[in-house]
Amino acid sequence: MNADMDAVDAENQVELEEKTRLINQVLELQHTLEDLSARVDAVKEENLKLKSENQVLGQYIENLMSASSVFQTTDTKTKRK
């Protein structure tokens, strides 16, 4: 009877260790997911900022090009006459 109880105790101990290991693994995965989620949010925010900056720079370049005679279109037909 003592041997049976020892076997049951050993089995319960193994189950408890396995449950503890699984709980720790789940907690670690949750932390990893939280970190990844925070990183995704930061990248999205940076992306929006860069898109806005690109629009401003694009408009600035267009304004410079329209103000410069180098980038003005020329009508070749009228110049040849």
TrEMBL record:
Alphabetical keyword list: Coiled coil, Cytoplasm, Golgi apparatus, Membrane
Record's subcellular location: Cytoplasm, Cytosol; Golgi apparatus membrane; Golgi apparatus, trans-Golgi network
Membrane topology (UniProt): Peripheral membrane protein
Major subcellular location class: cytoplasm
Coiled-coil residues: 19-53
Alphabetical list of InterPro entries matching this protein: SCOC
Pfam family membership, one: DUF2205
Superkingdom, natural source: Eukaryota
Physiological role: Positive regulator of amino acid starvation-induced autophagy.
Family according to the record: Belongs to the SCOC family.
Name of the protein described by the UniProt record: Short coiled-coil protein
Lineage per the UniProt record: Eukaryota, Metazoa, Chordata, Craniata, Vertebrata
